[in-house]
TrEMBL record:
Residue ranges constituting the Calcineurin-like phosphoesterase domain according to the UniProt record: 1-241
The keyword Metal-binding appears for this protein: yes
Name by which UniProt lists this protein: Putative phosphohydrolase
Family stated for the protein in its record: Belongs to the cyclic nucleotide phosphodiesterase class-III family.
UniProtKB keywords: Hydrolase, Iron, Metal-binding
Any GO MF annotation of the entry: hydrolase activity
Gene3D superfamilies tied to this protein: 3.60.21.10
Cited Pfam families: Metallophos
InterPro entries: Calcineurin-like_PHP (IPR004843), CNP_phosphodiesterase-III (IPR050884), Metallo-depent_PP-like (IPR029052)
Entry keyword Hydrolase: yes
Record organism: Ignavibacterium album (strain DSM 19864 / JCM 16511 / NBRC 101810 / Mat9-16)
SUPFAM superfamilies noted in UniProt: Metallo-dependent phosphatases (SSF56300)
Amino acid sequence: MKIAHISDLHLNTLFNDSNLLRVKRLIKYVSAQSVDHLIISGDLTDNADESDLLLLKRMLNKYGFSTHLNLTVIPGNHDIFGGPQKPIEIFSFPDRCKEVDYDAKVNLFKEIFKETFLNTITADSESNFPFIKEIDNVIILGINSIAEYSKYKNPFASNGEVKLKHFNKIDQLLKKYSEKDVFKIVAIHHHFNKMKNTKRSISGLWQNIEKQTMKLKKKKRLLSLFQKHNVDIVLHGHIHYNEFYERKGIAFLNAGASTVGYTGKSLRVNIINILQNTLHCEMHKLTESGEVKIEDFFRKEYQINLRLSPIL
């Protein structure tokens, strides 16, 4: 099975038309790679605009990503709360977040991409998240990590948190596969590692504030749950650079710089190949000149039926 992973597209046709062409070029490239499934791990839009979500959906449909079998989408904080578009909006943004109907936004996201949520497995009939998709010998666990607005705990709506009631649901869902030889993939928006300093300076007051507030709460508890159920890889975004890292023996892949970030003007997509007992990940960089550079992220081989025994 061949999976493409992108994130943080930040489509915003009202304030940043130029990014539309970059997103189109990226999705066209992904389609040309003949992937079986595309995962987008949040921040599809920059300003939580319904018209941008609908535009992206049409674009994805055009290039063959339209059903639960070939597309998985997870909301990001920008898809629920948006973001300040002008420097002057930085100080009024918390008040704007306070007025957001969180549940309505999550439901709108699911309604727009309803075809991708068909035939998913949930813990109960009323839940949108978490969910599991079964595709061949792969399961994809989708988790909503967007925390609700809080004046003190989440004043800029960029922190992440998985609700306590969802931990039991994740446990229930993964237990169904404890005796099955399947690759287990988690799709979530927020990261599990520390933000690193980059040579490129973070410009603006807003970015400096975000750097201090882009944290995932209860991530140690999530890690323990992933470890308990032998999750193979976690795909996320949120921080705007591409990176592979490991925590507690679990592989993590960040695609947060697909069209924006600290990576210059190249477009980026992670390509994950799952073949028998091998998991192999590459990063494809598309330069402005049309050149494609491919970088190996990691390769792991697994003993069949022994999910705890990776061969490094």
